[in-house]
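subagent[fold] <- orchestrator: predict structure for attached chain, return tokens only, no commentary.
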Amino acid sequence: MGSALQHAQSSSHLQQRGVRGHMVGVLRQYELVERVRAYDPDADEGLINRAYVFSMKAHGSQTRASGDPYFSHPIEVAGILTDLKLDDETIVTGILHDTIEDTVATPDEVERLFGANVARLVDGVTKLSKIEAQSENERAAENLRKFLLALSDDIRVLLVKLADRLHNMRTLHHIKSEEKRRRIARETMDIYAPLAERIGMYEIMNEMQTLAFRELEPDAYASITRRLAQLHAEGGDIVGRIGLGLKLHLADNGLEAEVTGREKHPFSIWKKMAERHISFEQLSDVMAFRVIVANPEDCYKSLGLIHRRWPMVPGRFKDFISTPKRNGYRSLHTSVIHDSKMRIEIQIRTREMHLQAEKGLAAHWAYKEGKPAADLKVPWIDDLVEILDHADSPEELLEHTRMAMYQDRIFAFTPKGELIQLPKGATPVDFAYAVHTRLGDRTVGAKVNGRVIPLRTLLENGDQVEILTSEAQQPQPSWLRFVATGKARSAVRRFVRHKERDETVDLGRKIYDEIVARLPMPLPKEALGRGLKKLKLEDEDALMIAIARKRVGDEALMEALMPGSTGGDVATPRRSAQRRAISIRGLTPGVAFHLAPCCHPIPGDRIVGLRREDEEIEVHAIGCETLATGIDADWMDLAWGDGSDGAPARLRIILRDQAGALGAMAGILGGKDANIVNLQQVHRDGSFHTFDLDVEVHDLAHLHAILAALRAAEQVSSAERL
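subagent[fold] -> orchestrator:
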């Protein structure tokens, strides 16, 4: 069947490409120029020639682990970029990408000789020289930050970096240190292969994964390649026979198609075996075929002809033509049970779709459309750059960016039919933030496919999501327990940080006013400024935060504001230090204050606060047994604000063993507008069942009304507050 069916063994393909430099030598200067001019006749030949000579001279006598001259590496990187048919500036960047880092060449020199664009691209690639996949430290986060900012400025930075990493992986076996080889392979598997996938460059992704897999799991790699060789030896050219059958079946029905087939990559096979917990013998779909036709209509026609001829495997059909992946990938995917009783995967696409699938972003490159290459924008990178502005720590930045880059995707729709792509495990809150940050902040509920669902519900492919909002709503700290996207997590954490800061400042100001009231004389206006300098604090807010978090003690503050005011013997009492109660308005559990779980105080209870260094204020009911245990903390007299409404109260209810008793209890609580947030059966004794439950109540009066109603019920033996 000639060129119509190409049966390529991935291992031999990699070996052939991987040792090209050794087999035929480094690309010569004229060869590189000819390769670029073959697809871009207008390329700047002089620019490429100057870069070639400059790189050779700059790297001089440097050598690689293989013993080859070092300049062979950047030239081979440029060769990979010509395979992607990239513009002359990108090719030159590939040639020069190591000169600033590894030679005496300077950024100014590169800009003077090759222009501002090339200098900017080389600088961007230089900054990406280390992204440590396993290192949760500040340097890793800073490298990642530079990486994302460089990508947002010009995606060509990533393409050069991917070509650089691919060539390094092809020559990885020359590195003597096993530890270093494994570190590079793990980094490739965790960072660079997923990045290649995210911009649709599946050919590069597959080669990277296979090379990294060979290093990380050598025994598994050897076993799978050996099994593939046995399969090929036993079945002959089974891929060719199946591919020819597909082509003839389509031709018999009037459809001309190019069919190519291959055995799956070893890493892909190993991953499926691990996910499904099966052996190689149980893995039936080890072959994949591509059907390339003239237009999208023929794609669907081919699909119908194939499904009519061979049974489809349920649940394995995906239509990426009507709903393309976020990286632009389009194709029809299906699996069928072939005549040979084997499951085979089939991808159906047009020539244009195939180019996109193989080359990714490079398939739309700038010189073809006369647009500046830097104008090419990638939405997911823009999302990551937005997170850069709000990440509070290196760990948070690394967490968000990895979530956004590497998770598998699902597709959901707005009520107007707009497609929103999200990671697997995403919830309506993630959906809302993906549409717009303000929509996420105001989310109170969601309808999925017309049905109201809890916000923690996981979305599935094809769901239509309508977000319900309220202007009074704010992001909830509890959302952090289930959101899946970095954008949503970043927005909620940002709100919590700001909320905590505001509440902490307010609390510190109230304590400050109380401490000032204990001074022996009125405080002059300039005293606060002097006190800030003495305490080495930047401003008033910093002082209030330090007071609230007990980083500045009462006596230290009094002495800073009014030297000698403590008299050396005025000790701040440990208990009831404040003469005036501090009102808690709009209490936000888990932020600046939290309600103690031992006593569950509710509005109406008399309350006190325990204040320890660098900890949140712990709010207790005055009768809490914990307070009698001699806790080492400052006591604060607290009071509920006028606007305080709602807190969980813990009840212990003993029900008689009667049919419908639990339903009767729930009915009473519902009738009293009390929501059960937690229910646990703690004891069963013959004719009685004991339950502990947390119930949201408005205040103490509301709780008393609930308890009275429960005690009056025939099914309830007793009802008490814990």
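orchestrator: received. Logging for downstream: The two ends are 81 Å apart (CA to CA). The CA atoms of residues 712 and 718 lie 9 Å apart.
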